[in-house]
Amino acid sequence: MKIWLLENKISGNLLLIAALFLVALSFRLWDINATGRTWDENAYFNAGKIYINNILTHNFNPDAWRYNRAHPPIAKYIYGIVNYFAKAEAHDYTASRVLSAVMGALICLIVYFAGREFFERRVG
What we know:
Layout: H1 2-29, H2 41-56, H3 73-86, H4 94-118
Transmembrane segments: 12-30, 98-115
Organism: marine sediment metagenome
Keywords: Membrane, Transmembrane, Transmembrane helix
């Protein structure tokens, strides 16, 4: 009896977590390209493409890395990798926007787990 209750509780938690993630993701993916290009997308995504291209061509000349170095590079590397595998064109930001949507939906799960850990399940 206790094992069944534990399994039922785990499956209920997984269902809640999956539903939370899917709802958060669906809000973020809804008409994702409708707003057009935002002011910083060009800086991040083009820098990411340049950085990944520099790595793939083994171009470690300091002049090749000067584009948009004022911002932290990890986001640009991640966007560059996504654009590389998605074979995105010059101004096609859809793959990177989907990545941002997934990361934003994961943040909702982190907030849920933090609320559940520090307060109670209803708060999370």
